[in-house]
Every structure is written in C-alpha cells, then in structure tokens.
Amino acid sequence: MLKPAGNRYMLVDDYVYKDVIVPTGFHTDGLSYKFRLVGIFINKYDPKYIEAAIVHDYLTDLGDWEKANKYFEEMLPKTLTSKLMVNAVKLYRKFKGV
What we know:
The chain is of the alpha+beta class and 98 residues long.
C-alpha cells in the first residue's frame, strides 16, 4: 500500500474509505505530531493508525476538516491512545483556526 518517498510515504494504489478515494501517488507523513510528546510513544506509520492518517491527511489537504476528523475518529481503534490522538487533532484545529 505504501512505499518510502523521501521522509514521507506514498500510496502505490488508490485507497478507498466510504465516499473518499485517496489516489495513487498521494504522500503522507503518517501521524503528524502536533504535540511532540505523542511521538515518543507511537510509530508514525504504525499499521493500527496509518489508514486513518492517510484519509485524514488527504481530506485536510482538500480543506474538509469536518469529514477528516469524523473519519479519523471512526477509523482508529477504540483505545485510550486513539482518544488522545482525536482530542489532539481537535485542539490543533482549534488553535490554528482551520
């Protein structure tokens, strides 16, 4: 699904989730660490989170933050770590005003 492309990864096939098609060639940085402490505990490309990160990155690139955050939360496993990531994304958006 992904292959290295510099300091990011690139999709080698389209990725589909619900009504979203992330095209082949899309680049992702995995889980973006807006709050640096998270990076100590979580691999940016962990298979448990990478699909949610890809969809979130793609939708935010399109400017659709509402759908991006909704799908991000839906796609993540139901764990405390995931809940913390969802809340971090919401805080980031609030502080950045996007």
